Amino acid sequence: MTLVLTEHEVRTLLTMEMALEAVESAFRQLDRGQATNTPRHRVRIPGCTLHVMSGALVAQRILGLKAYTVTREGARFVVLLYDGEGGELLALMEADALGQMRTGAASGVATKYMARADAATVGILGTGWQARSQLEAVCAVRPIRQVLAFSRRPERCRAFCSEMSERLQVTVHPAAGPEEVVRSADILITATTSREPVFKGEWLSPGVHINAIGGNALIRREVDEETLRRADRIVVDSRDQAKIECGEFLVAIEKGILCWEAIHELAEVVSGRLPGREDASQITLFKSLGIAIEDVAVGLRVYERAIRENVGAHLPS
Fold this sequence. Notes:
Helix content is 38%, strand content 27%. It has helices at residues 7-13, 16-31, 96-114, 129-141, 154-168, 178-184, 225-230, 239-245, 247-254, 266-271, 292-309; strands at 3-5, 35-45, 48-57, 62-71, 74-83, 89-94, 121-125, 146-150, 171-174, 187-190, 209-212, 233-236, 263-265, 284-287, 313-314. It is globular.
């Protein structure tokens, strides 16, 4: 029978530790050819867009997809998991929190392999929905001592700083502007929906690691061309998906600033085939688009825990 999990139940079951382990394992399996991932497809009608992305974990015999709609009222997410033996639908779960956590976990995994081991200061531009799991994941993989945050909405920024200071037991405080955030950061997170770069590449300090997670459309660009010029290592979750929807890369490639051969996949880094960085002075960049195999892997962990703890309802067969 199909297990149905509500948003509240998923939030109760899923931890960042689970998400980090699941996402790291998924990228390792991708590199070994033990997982498959299909880039996001979009279907549009006036006022609404349907997004669908799918993948499979071969060893676990699990296939799955995430589907979500975006309208002026917001986004609605679901993840479906299928048994690879008999083909039955194992689980249907609401996936707002799941998507938030898996995106944070992908940045956490990238940070684990690409940031300096002594990185202690995080700078974050954007303090909305996605920023919280980004910061939580980074703090889970590095000994962070302080965080500087900036948002164009000061009240939202102050609320974010207060909430995350208490949750993570790390000093999180507002910055005067983006330049202060960027110049101070050992790890820089951009979590915005901006169509224009949110900082200048000239502000970056040697040795910084960047997680750029806000843009997954051709019209969005969080990082500028100078950042791409200065980056010694550029990594993305999926090169195939980047070729469809990464505005930062496509503009730079068209101008001859960047080439696809210089852009690597996180699976190569997690597997050890490619060093995340080769010295402490290098600038490294992880561009997160959000891929289906992350949703499938995290969804499977949620499903397994729900079965163990008898959480959720079953659809009649």
